[in-house]
Structure formats: C-alpha cells, structure tokens
Input
Amino acid sequence: MEKTDVLIAGLGPVGAALGVYLARSGVKVTVVEKTDEVYPMPRAAHLDHETMRLLDLAGGAEAVAGNSQPLSSYEFRNAKGDLLLGFRPRAALADTGWPYTSMFHQPTLEIALREALSAEPSASVRLGVSLVGYTDGPDGVTAEIEGPDGKTQIAARYLVGCDGGQSTVRRLAGIGLDDMGFDEPWLVIDTLLKNGTTRLSTIGLQHCDPARPVTSMPMAPGRHRWEFMLLEGETPEEVMTDEAIDAMIAPFADPKSLSVERRAVYRFHAVFAERWRDGHVILAGDAAHQMPPFMGQGLCSGARDAANLGWKLAAVIKGEADQALLDSFQPEREPHVRDITEMAVSMGRIVCTQDEAEAAARDAGMMQKPEAERFDATPTLRGMASGVIEGGGAVAPSLVGKAGERPDRALGMSPFLVVAKRADAPADKGGMQIVALDEHEGEGVEPFFALMGDAPAMLVRPDRYVFGTGEPASLLTAWAAYLKTGRAGMQAAA
Ligand SMILES: Cc1cc2nc3c(=O)[nH]c(=O)nc-3n(C[C@H](O)[C@H](O)[C@H](O)COP(=O)(O)OP(=O)(O)OC[C@H]3O[C@@H](n4cnc5c(N)ncnc54)[C@H](O)[C@@H]3O)c2cc1C
Output
C-alpha cells in the first residue's frame, strides 16, 4: 500500500498552504482534491497583513501582491448614506512588511499555492480524487480514496481534513458542529469592470438598508464584488437572473459598465467543529470553522490554522516534538477564531437588519457619537493567548532587507531567536536560528525592540507569534518544554 507522512484531503487555500509548509519541512505529503480545477465561485476578496506574510511563507503572496489593491476605508452606512461605523486601515505597511488590507481574487492565490506545492519534491498532488473513507489505528490512518482509476488505499501517519465547509473528514469522524445561530442567505456576484476601469471605489461599503442590505467591495484591480441579501420569500433562482442582478446593481453603478463573471447564493453562517482532532485525524480551515464574510477573515483564519498545524505536524513526524504538541492546536486557534467570528457576526447583525423599526433604532443608537468618533482603525485582532510564555502572544514583526528583500522567507517555518546583539546569542543554540538585530540596522528593527523592551532576546514561533521574551537560555529551555508537552507558560504551571 502507498505510504505517506501526512495525507491532506482538499486542495483549497488551506490544504495547499499546509502542504507547502509540510513539504518544505521535509515531510512527505500527499494531497487529494476531488475537483480538477480551483474552485470557480466568488469567495474571499480580502486578506490581512498577517495572512499575506503566512501565505508568503507558502509561496502564495507575491501573485496576490502583484494583483491587489488596498482599501481606503470600510464603511457601514444606512439607507440615507449616514455613517454608522467605519474602519480606516493605516496607510503604511504593517510591521509584518505587508499592507493592512489586500483586496484580491481568490483563484489567483490558489493557483500560486498549487504551483508552489507542485514544485516541492516531497509533495504529491492527486486531482480528481476524493477521500471517501478511513480507519484510524495505533500508528496512523488507512484512507480510502476514489478517482478515475477507482478506489485505492493510502496509509498515512496523519490525515488532515482541509475539505471545506461540507467536510467529508469531519462527517466520517462523527464530529458535530456548534452553531452560533447566524444563518442568512446572500447572493454574491463577482463583476469584471469594462473599458480598462481598475476600480469603482476604494471604499468597502456595507449599505445597511433594511429594504435590501448590500455589500459593495473592490477586489483585485478590474474586479468588483457585490453581495445582496435575499429578502423574505425570495428564491436563489429569481435573484440570479441577469435582469434581477442589473436592477440590484443599478442604484450603485451602471450595470452596462461591468459584466457578471460569477454568481452564487450562499448562506452566511457561523459554525465550529466540536473537536478539531480525533486520534490521527485533524480538521483545519473551513472544515473546522466557518464565519460570515463581514470581517473578510475566513481564509485568513484558515491560513493561521495551516501555519499553526504545519510546523507542529512536521516537528512530531521528525521526532523533534512529542505528539502532545498536537493537542495544543485547537486550544491555541479556537479562541482566536471565535473572537473574530463573534466580531463578524455582530457586524453581520448590523448589516442584515430587514426590519424598518429595528434599523431606525440601530441608526439612532450608532449615530449618537459624533461622526469622527464612528471611525476606527482596522480592528486589531488579539494575539495568541496560550502556547506562549511571558512577553509572548503578539504577531512578530518582520525585517525588511535593504534592497527590499524579505529575510523572513529564509527563516522558513522554523522558530528563531531574536537577540539585540550577536554577543547575546547563546553558545548552545540547540539548532535554533539566530537573528541578531545589531546586524540589521536600517532594516526595520524598531518594532522588535518595542516588543522586547529591556529583554536581551525574543523567541518567535514558526507561525510568527512571539513565544516569549527574556534571557536566551531560559527561552530555549521553555521552548523545549513546550515541544514536549504542548503546554507553555501559565498553562504549563496549571
Ligand atoms: C462570499 C464569501 C466571501 C468570502 N470573503 C472572504 C474574505 O474576504 N476573506 C477571507 O479571508 N475569507 C473569505 N471567505 C472565506 C474563504 O473563502 C474560505 O474560508 C476559504 O476558501 C476556506 O478555505 P479551505 O481551504 O478551508 O476550504 P475550501 O476553499 O472550501 O477548499 C476545500 C477543498 O476541499 C475539496 N474537497 C471537499 N471534499 C473533498 C474530499 N472528500 N476529498 C478531496 N477533496 C475534497 C473541495 O473540492 C475544495 O477544493 C469568503 C467566503 C465566501 C463564501
């Protein structure tokens, strides 16, 4: 029987990024994908700076950066056009070296990730092949897959279900969904702008009109996203006709100035898999959690899963960490993604109001503040609350090389120890990479010092969260303990 270290079911963005992380760590990875082409329906339009950095480590960000644009603001306005709530991303690059917002086209990313994965010698990709069953045993999983040549089996130490919202792996594992009770039908339309127009607006708009809530969002240059909430009694068939779409777009743009590329009706919902791991079977991305798109964070959250899980699986398979480390995946990721989902749901509740009186009360409440105070910076996502020690949890900054190169890439999906001075580096590095800030003057070292305070060193996890700050030797000791137990800091002491 064919053998692999990790079998990934599903080659969406999360499966592809995870595949690259594993393959680049020297792990043998096999990915099965039931379709032959990347998913053609309109989906993600926004990526945040942290996600761009993680996708860059998987070979996917350059293609996006070459074909994306930032948002100047994200605004929630009522039917009359009054501002209810707004976010203005900071204009400069984030400390990760990437823009706060990148409006993009999801298939561009998926194609780039697939190319990066295909270039890895230890990765094997099977398109048109579905995972249809598995049995879990003491040493791993025996998976049943089905493709054009019929059914066959693959033995893998771990199976990761990156197979999206309808996850077969989740169903086969008997894992239920915890539903946050948000379930709204929306028509999503991707349009191509005609006559060389690159954008209709730089503003992402939530038009909070109870008569028809609408989202209008720039995507990659030359593309624009529209989303229209279905009203009580409307069916997908009736809102998806050309005539219906033109009529819905008309109040916002001339329908003749664009062509509809893709249309789909989705139910926006918020659900979490009850368990993200069952023996040698793990769920990541939409298979583990789904949120409504009002924060533009579903794919971003899946990329964080891939980064969190990728280095851990590689470390366990290579014998550098105990299997217990895998127990930290859900506790580290779930609170983060729940937090974001709650924000997305509360934004969704503002937008999805279809009752006139409720909308009027909403507007009156939100407009009590002066307009300037209704604007905020891009919402700050919380850092990592477990899997870190004192001084840890923040997203680590990134150096920017003098010629604009990205030293972050060369560090790969590995931990590294940042020291203020080369002389502070410990004699016994335990195989850890060292970044000495005194050797990188003028390359954006200030954000590192801001996080380190007076500490001589900072340890950064492979997924680019700060593990902790302190003396180099004690950081290395704490890291070794975390790899053994999957517990760190207060958590380890408890
Ligand atoms: C309208 C809309 C707007 C969105 N906007 C944003 C946004 O702006 N920003 C953002 O970050 N996110 C956004 N998202 C969410 C984002 O698109 C998803 O979170 C992301 O695509 C999930 O990636 P994934 O790899 O987990 O799953 P998917 O992309 O769904 O990939 C799963 C893959 O698994 C395959 N598969 C399924 N079953 C099997 C099987 N049994 N065997 C083998 N293969 C299988 C499928 O064919 C598919 O290719 C949006 C979503 C929607 C619907």
Residues 285 and 302 are 4 Å apart (CA to CA).
